[in-house]
Amino acid sequence: MHQVPDGQSISPFNTALSSIAAYLQTKVFESNSDTIGLVFYGTNTTQNAMHAKSIYVKYDLDLPDINRILELKHMAKDSSVFESQIGSATDPYNYSDVYWVALSIFSKSAPRLARKRIFVITNQDLPTSTDALSLAATRSRISELESMYISVELFAIDKSDTDFFALNLFYNQIPEFWLGDDVDLTTIPSSDNFSELCNRILLKKFKQSIVFRVPFTLPGGFRIGVKGTYLVKAKNGQSVKHLEHSTMKQVDFQSILTCMTTGQLMIPDDLKLCYSFETEKVVFTNEEKCNIKSFGEPQLVLVGFMDVSDLKAKHNLQASVFITPDEKQYSGSSSLFSHLLKQMSNRNKLAICKLIARVNSVPRMIALLPQIQGVGFFGKELLSGFHGIYLPFGDDLRVRKYAPRFVPPELVDAASELLNHASNATIDFSLFNNPVIDRHNAYVEALALGQDCPRETLDATMPDEQEIHDTYGDFIQNFKSVCQVYNSQCNDNEPTTGIDIAKRTVTSTGSKQAKRSKLASKPMDVQNVEILASQGKLSTLSVLQLNQFLTTVKWDITSNRKADLISQVMTYLQSI
C-alpha cells in the first residue's frame, strides 16, 4: 500500500487516506448522526482494546469533525507522518483479528445504529496464508459480523497498470465478502489514483430509504408483501441549526398554548378544530379529523392491466418508486412476485393499481412497469421489480388545440434527423450534482477549514457547447440552412404557407386586442348599461368597464369581483 506504482505520484495508501478525508467531509454536511471510525492493520504499533497484534485503532466510532479531516489530509500529503507515528509491520500478524477488533468497536460504541458497515480498502490480494485454518478463522469472524447485521465491503485497488488485484487468491474463497446487495466485484485501477476510489466510496454512502411497506392485494383477496424505494431522490441542503450566541450551543424551541381570554395553559385534549361554513362554525375533534382524512388501510390494490405502449411520457409527473417483494410481511411473497413480474414482461403489460402509502395518505393511481434483471446503460445492473409511476389526475392534464400549419417535407426531414440523433444520446443523470448545494458547501468548508477562498465547484448542468458542436454540428447547420431557404421563399411572396398564416393570425389578433383596449378605455354611459342589463348581457363587460361605470356614477365600490360588480350595477340601476 505504501509503494508508489510506476508512473504515479501517490501511493495507494495516501490515496485511501485522501478518499476517506473526502468521505468524512461529505458526511459533515449531509448527516449529523452517522458515526465513523478508522482502523489500520499491518502496523508496527499496536493500539486496540483487544490487544491484537499489528492493529492500530486511529479513531473510535464518533461523529466526523474538522480536526480528523485536517489530520487525515496532512497524513496523506506527508507519508513520513504515518511512518513516524504508527509505522508498517515487518512481522506476520493474524488477519482475522482485524474483524475481531471491528466487532468489539461496534459492540461497545454502536448498539443503536440502524446500519453498520466495514469498508476494507487494500491492494494486498493475499493478506494472509491460504491454509484451511486461516480461511476458517477469517470466515468465522466475518460470519459473526454478518449475524449482527454488520456488512463487510471490499475496495480492491490494483497494484499497478499491469499487476492487477487477484480476487481468486484469497477473497473469492470467502463468500461472506459478497453477501451485500450492492457488492461491486470489479477492482479499482491504480491509474486513477484518487478519483475512482473516492467515487466508489461516495457511492456507498447512500442507502435506499424505504418509502412504504404495504400489502399488495390481488384478485380474490390474496395478498403479498411489497416495499417501495426511491431510485432517484432530490438532494436537499443541510437544515439550519440555531445556536446560543455566548455558549454556541444548540437551542431547542418549545411552544406553549394558552387561552386568549383566561391565559390558562392548554393541553392537546383541550383543543378542538373548527371549519367556518358561512356564519356557522363546524367543530370537530382531532379523532374526527383523522377519520375524515383516512381513506382506508395502507395497501396496494390491483385494478387491471394495460399495454405498455399506452403509458406515455407525459404521464410521469413525479419521481417514481421502485417496488420489490417484502418477505417480512408475508412469507413466500418473492415467489409470486417474480412470477407476476415475468408474465407481465413476457406479455408486454403493465398493471394499474390504487396505492395508499400511509395511514393518512391520499389514494393515488400508479402504473407498475415491469423490469427484468439485466445490464442497462453505462454497465449498471438493473434490478428486478416494478417501477411505480404515479399517474396524473384528470385535472392535471389539458388538451390544447393547435391551428393546422403547413410545413414542407424538407423541413420535417431535417428536424427529424436532428432529433433522432439527439435522442440516441445516453446521459447518466446520477452524475449531475446540484450546483447550488455544491457551491454552498464549498463556502462552508472554506470557513470551517480556515481557507482563504472556497474550492472551485463544477456546474455540470451547463451545456458543453464544443461537444454539442462536434457531435451535432452538421445536423444543426443542415436544419438552419433548410429554415433559411424556407423563410426566403416565404418572403418572396410565394403561395400561402404556415408562416404567412401565423403572421396574419398575430396581426389580426393584435388589432383585435388594440380595439378591445380602446373600448375598455371608454367609460360606459347609463343608457348603454341599461340596455345591456335588460338583455342580461352585463357579464359581457369587463371588470375594468364595470369599475369605470361605477366610478363615473360615484358609486361606493365594495368589491372588485366581477359578480359583485354586476350586482352593484344592478342595485344602482334599480335605485335611479
TrEMBL record:
The keyword Iron does not apply. Coiled coil: none annotated. Keywords: ATP-binding, Chromosome, DNA damage, DNA recombination, DNA repair, DNA-binding, Helicase, Hydrolase, Nucleotide-binding, Nucleus, Telomere. One of its GO terms (cellular component) is chromosome, telomeric region. InterPro entries: DNA_bd_Ku70/Ku80 (IPR006164), Ku70 (IPR006165), Ku70_bridge/pillars_dom_sf (IPR027388), KU70_core_dom (IPR047087), Ku_C (IPR005160), Ku_N (IPR005161), SPOC-like_C_dom_sf (IPR016194), vWFA_dom_sf (IPR036465). Its main location: nucleus. One of its GO terms (molecular function) is damaged DNA binding. One of its GO terms (biological process) is double-strand break repair via nonhomologous end joining. Residues 263-409 form the Ku domain. It is found in: Chromosome, Telomere; Nucleus. It holds the Pfam family Ku_C. Belongs to the ku70 family. This is ATP-dependent DNA helicase II subunit 1. It comes from Batrachochytrium dendrobatidis (strain JAM81 / FGSC 10211).
